[in-house]
Amino acid sequence: MTLEIFLQDSYEKTCEAEILTIDNEKVVLDKTIFYPAGGGQEHDTGWLKQGEETVEVFKVKKEQGVIVHYVKNPEKLSPGAVTAKIDWQRRHGLMRHHSMLHVLGTVFYRHYDSLCTGNQIYTDRARIDLTGITELKEEELNEMVAEANKEISTNHKISSRIVPREEASAISGSIKTVVNLIPESVRDIRLVKIGNIDEQACGGTHVKETGEIGEIILEKTKNKGKGVTRLELRLENG
Length: 238
Hints:
It is built from four helices and 15 strands. It is an alpha+beta fold. The strands form four sheets. A six-stranded antiparallel β-barrel has the order 2-3-7-6-5-8. A four-stranded antiparallel β-sheet has the order 9-10-15-14, with helices on one face.
């Protein structure tokens, strides 16, 4: 199993690793800083350097539990030592927007018991689908965004921990962590905590402090039916 360095430290930009297998454009490493697409967050991109050769990593996925790095010019690589490097600007944009959704989600949960039914995180924007807010007017939505921005400016610390599934399920308000959507075979759950305002199950990458996020701008809302509202957002000043 590949060691997932990105879960231990989302700020690691390079690492030394071993290429275990190469199958055409698919490369498997013994450890990686590359985040595979999942949980609404896009995959990292970057490079693998071996000797004098450098190849581009253009996609990263988990396939049957294995993290697979898709590379261009795989013929330049061979099993053995390699230096991995991520596109940090892309990663940092994803981290900021992911942390932003957590803060925003907890504000809506605080006032309307809103649950997140889906999200998508890009480097320059994000969207989140929330329950319980279909009747809200634009002014009320903007008030929630303003409250989320206030929480961000408080500069809460962001940390993570691993707990048994039963413990995660027992945490107050943990339904919003969608623990019930994680396969029963997963017995250890990673929780991401934002100060004293939020803690939820998450396998993604985040900034260290909310002050790093920037200011949330609500761009658009859309009624998705079945009591679900989609908010489309971007960040400024991060």
